């Protein structure tokens, strides 16, 4: 038995073809506000992205241990639930604030902006955003960061850049993490680097192991260099 379908729109429905575009435009507007606020205080803003379990929090802990006596650091942590990651980072002695997304698979600029007043930005040299573990959704959302850093763990397999190209296209640095496991895994640093650079030829690449303290000094040097560049740029602008 055939049923005649109504050609009337259901009550309360809207056409959604441009919803994602409008959402991203609104996000970009807030991201620019964040970027201007960071410029006022010379604070370097770093967006840390990766799949879940790639070692973002361990990297934040190790970074704090290495640099907290040299510069002022703070971390904003995004996660679907619990404050476990922020608690781990606080144990190093630096400020960490958890944003619990309650199911949202990424952070958005308005989430970041809402909690910025919880940080004394005048006295923070580098503010990290540890994004929700996901290589898909976070790639589309500008958070006002100066740089986006993506961890590529050896435990994930070396095929991820071509499978999730937008994340690597929008990143400035790829950290091949958990490098201490390379002897035990079918993971090629050469292959993952080749694929990533084919997507984004301007991408920097470092190999690290936060647990074994391998490559962490190079990572910290990269951070300090970017921090100095921003501060010098701001100083030059102030003298214009």
Blueprint of the fold:
Blueprint: H1 19-41, E1 44-49, H2 56-67, E2 73-79, H3 84-90, E3 95-100, H4 109-115, E4 126-130, E5 147-153, H5 160-163, H6 165-169, E6 173-177, H7 189-199, E7 204-207, H8 216-238
Parallel strand pairs: 1-4, 1-5, 2-3, 2-4, 5-6, 6-7
Characterize the structure shown.
The protein is an alpha/beta fold. Helices cover 38% and strands 17% of the residues. It has helices spanning 19-41, 56-67, 84-90, 109-115, 160-163, 165-169, 189-199, 216-238, and strands spanning 44-49, 73-79, 95-100, 126-130, 147-153, 173-177, 204-207. The chain has a seven-stranded parallel β-sheet, sandwiched between helices. Helix 2 packs parallel to helix 3 (84-90). It is globular and about 45 Å long. The chain starts with 18 loop residues before the first helix and ends with a helix.
């Amino acid at each position: 038995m055939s049923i005649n379908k109504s050609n009337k729109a259901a009550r309360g429905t809207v056409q959604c073809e441009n919803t994602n575009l409008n959402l991203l435009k609104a996000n970009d507007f807030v991201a620019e506000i964040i970027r201007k606020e960071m410029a006022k205080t010379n604070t370097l803003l770093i967006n840390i992205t990766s799949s879940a379990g790639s070692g973002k929090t361990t990297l934040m802990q190790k970074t704090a241990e290495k640099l907290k006596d040299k510069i002022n650091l703070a971390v904003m942590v995004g996660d679907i639930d619990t404050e476990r990651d922020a608690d781990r980072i606080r144990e190093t002695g630096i400020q960490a604030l958890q944003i619990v997304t309650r199911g949202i698979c990424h952070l958005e600029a308005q989430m970041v902006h809402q909690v910025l007043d919880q940080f004394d930005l005048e006295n923070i040299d580098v503010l990290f955003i540890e994004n929700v573990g996901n290589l898909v959704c976070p790639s589309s959302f500008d958070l006002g960061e100066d740089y986006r850093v993506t961890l590529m763990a050896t435990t994930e397999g070396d095929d991820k850049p071509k499978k999730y190209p937008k994340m690597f296209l929008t990143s400035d640095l790829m950290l091949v993490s958990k490098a201490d496991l390379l002897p035990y895994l079918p993971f090629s640093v050469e292959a993952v680097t080749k694929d990533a650079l084919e997507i984004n030829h301007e991408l920097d690449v470092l190999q690290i192991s936060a647990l074994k303290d391998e490559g962490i000094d190079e990572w910290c040097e990269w951070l300090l260099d970017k921090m100095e560049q921003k501060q010098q740029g701001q100083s030059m602008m102030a003298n214009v």
